[in-house]
């Protein structure tokens, strides 16, 4: 199914480019807030296919994006492995920090069965989604998921996980191996259920030095891509190593991903160089979307002027901020979908 998104990932240049937003189904939408209240908790919303499918489709109905993305969370994987997980207001996800001895106790036997609500959600969404719109499945990259498991919560510099990898390299390898295998199985089931594109989120890639980036960011994703391609050789895979900076090119070349997601800190001249070899996705600063007005128009125009003539998926450089006004999302979409590029 060659949707606009798939065509661009395969290397075509389309204008206007396909557009979607990371976290496009979420707290900035009143219909999401209503559904979230109905569910009673964030995790219950993720694990209730009828409600998760509804949330997945809400931004498509409202904005007409070119892709829907499964409503879930990257931390359902450690939750399915038996780790406790809760989402606290104004704090985010919280787990009991993982110890070296806990790794061998991870419950890998029934993990895919516990993740089955996501597959039903995808099936429900696919049955209601126009064939012209892509459906994106996703997971967190092993390093990023590991950081949350080790620290028990998100941190600014991922010091806990970095130190764990230095003090306990074999245990870290075991954890990454486990997450590679489970994440691959999880993505394969998503593809089988109807996802026509997948994205791997490495949200904390930017915390790593050169040696660790190769070991804990590039190599695990490289192995994931290889395993996935053995079953689905043509599936488009977007890799998003947020904060990778000068490592972006190395990441794209070595992992074997199909398209490269860029965060908002990537200079457009560098993004243009990357685009010569890989379709790129991004990279509007989410704060420009909060601000709206000239700040938003300027950001959109700059991206289109530099990247709009090559294979581009227009997106934010990270997830949408919860207090983003809906009218600013409408402004962005209108600006992107103009008939010509402003140079």
Secondary structure: elements and pairs:
Elements: H1 4-9, H2 30-39, H3 42-46, H4 49-63, E1 67-69, H5 76-80, E2 86-88, E3 92-94, H6 111-114, H7 116-128, E4 134-140, H8 142-151, H9 159-167, H10 169-193, E5 197-202, H11 210-231, E6 237-241, H12 248-255, E7 259-261, H13 268-275, E8 280-284, H14 286-291, H15 293-307, E9 312-316, H16 326-336
Parallel strand pairs: 1-4, 4-5, 5-6, 6-7, 7-8, 8-9
Antiparallel strand pairs: 2-3
Helix pairs in contact: 2-4, 4-7, 7-10, 8-9, 8-10, 9-10, 10-11, 11-12, 13-15, 15-16
CA-based gyration radius: 19 Å
Name the beta content range: 5-15%
Average pLDDT figure:
96
CA(first)-CA(last) distance: 33 Å
Instruction: Write down the secondary-structure element order.
Output: HHHHEHEEHHEHHHEHEHEHEHHEH
Low-confidence blocks of residues: none
The order of strands across the largest sheet is: 1-4-5-6-7-8-9
Query: Count the helices. How many?
Result: 16
Which structural class do the helices and strands define? alpha/beta
The number of distinct β-strands equals 9
Quick one: overall form? Answer: globular
Provide the helix percentage.
40-55%
Q: Could you describe the largest sheet, including whether it forms a barrel? A: 7 strands, parallel
